[in-house]
Design brief:
The complex is a heterodimer of chains A (231) and B (107). Chain A has 2 domains: 69 residues, no CATH class; 148 residues, 3-Layer(aba) Sandwich (Rossmann fold). Helices cover 39% and strands 21% of the residues of chain A. Chain A has a 6-stranded parallel β-sheet with strand order 7-6-5-8-9-10, with helices on both faces. In chain A, helix 5 links the parallel strand 8 and strand 9. In chain A, helix 4 runs parallel beside helix 5. The radius of gyration of chain A is 20 Å and the shape is elongated. Chain B has one domain. Helices cover 25% and strands 29% of the residues of chain B. Chain B has a 5-stranded antiparallel β-sheet with strand order 3-2-1-5-4. In chain B, strand 2 and strand 3 form a beta hairpin. The two termini of chain B are 25 Å apart. The chains are: A alpha/beta (231), B alpha+beta (107).
């Protein structure tokens, strides 16, 4: 692989843009197809399929076998609430290879001391989120327990292509949340996108256990088809 | 922290920019039960240092050896690994699957 090609691939990744490296397996010849060039590429259909599935793989073409190295953007978790659960969630999410962004307008919570070396926005969600470029590789977790902060973020999340939306709170809390969302004009399909109570049911109690259950649910959402089989 | 396969490609670039000779090994096909999915990377330098994985540790040793060869020759190689007991003297996958691994030098 040419170093300049490798650099370009890494550059696209850090800019959160998809790209596919096409390798001719017989000759070793390679080219990089950027997200913006996808539709005009001769392998446009194959590349789009591979990218949609987020899966690298071999494709037979008229010119022989090629290998597609698919690079979809890194999954990013936007956590609303610089709370105790978020503190546990950050290192675990990083270990899983996810990026994390914390949003909380309460500066006492959103302090660098509590969250060293992490992207943090001490702003209201409706100010911070539009700047983040929310895409389908973004997961939202609402953790403040405070509708004043969680709800504006939920409104934005539900209008986005985000692949996961979770909201902390009991069934009772969620029932009142649903009422507010309906008043705000969201329908049942919108509301069904929200995982609440958040996380897989593993009986978690401590902040780290709750963080684990949230990350397990996000992983399942990424890896499983809706029928529970592997994607 | 090196968590994902994309991070490994960044690591490969960093190694190369630091003047090290580097090869990238990629799982390109799998049949049956395979420990690592298609697209998984192992990166290797000329001294045999490596990061990542293409199997659960079953064939990494052999891939590293081949990669050092690829670094010396410059030509890419396609390696196949199958069930170990068919050819007992060879490395293989204990899980019974087969994998094909593409090894290329970063130039």
């Amino acid at each position: 692989m040419d170093l300049s090609l490798l650099s370009k691939l890494n550059e696209e990744r850090s800019a959160r843009r998809a790209a596919v490296l096409v390798t001719d397996m017989a000759s070793g010849k390679q080219r990089l197809v950027l997200e913006s060039e996808l539709s005009s590429d001769p392998l446009s259909n194959e590349l789009s399929d591979a990218l949609r599935m987020g899966k690298s793989g071999v494709v037979e073409t008229s010119e022989g076998k090629v290998f597609l190295t698919v690079q979809a953007p890194v999954v990013r978790i936007v956590a609303i609430g610089a709370v105790h659960i978020s503190q546990a969630l950050v290192p675990m999410a990083q270990q899983l290879g996810f990026d994390v962004v914390i949003v909380d307008p309460r500066t006492a919570f959103a302090s660098p001391e509590r969250f060293p070396n992490i992207e943090m926005h001490a702003e209201w969600p409706d100010v911070a989120l539009p700047k983040l470029g929310v895409d389908r590789y973004t997961a939202f977790v609402m953790l403040t327990h405070d509708p004043k902060i969680d709800d504006p973020a939920l409104f934005i999340a539900l209008k986005s292509s985000s692949f996961y939306i979770g909201a902390l709170g009991s069934r009772k809390t969620h029932a009142t949340r649903i009422e507010r969302l309906k008043t705000a004009g969201f329908n049942d399909d919108d509301i069904a996108r929200i995982h609440a109570p958040i996380g897989l049911n593993i009986g978690g109690i401590s902040p780290a256990e709750v963080a684990l259950s949230i990350l397990a649910q996000i992983t399942a959402q990424l890896r499983l088809k809706p029928d529970g089989t592997r994607a | 922290m090196i968590a994902s396969d994309d991070d490994l490609l960044k690591q490969a670039e960093d190694w190369r920019r630091a003047g090290r000779d580097v090869a990238i090994a990629t799982v390109v096909e799998t049949w049956g039960s395979a420990p690592r999915p298609v697209g998984s990377h192992l990166i290797i330098d000329a001294d045999g240092n490596f990061m990542g994985s293409v199997s659960g540790g079953c064939v990494e040793g052999a891939v590293v050896t081949e990669a050092i060869d690829v670094i010396e020759n410059g030509a890419p190689k396609l390696l196949e690994f199958g069930v170990a007991n068919e050819t007992a003297w060879q490395v293989g996958l204990s899980c019974g699957g087969r994998i094909s691994v593409y090894v290329e030098k970063v130039v």
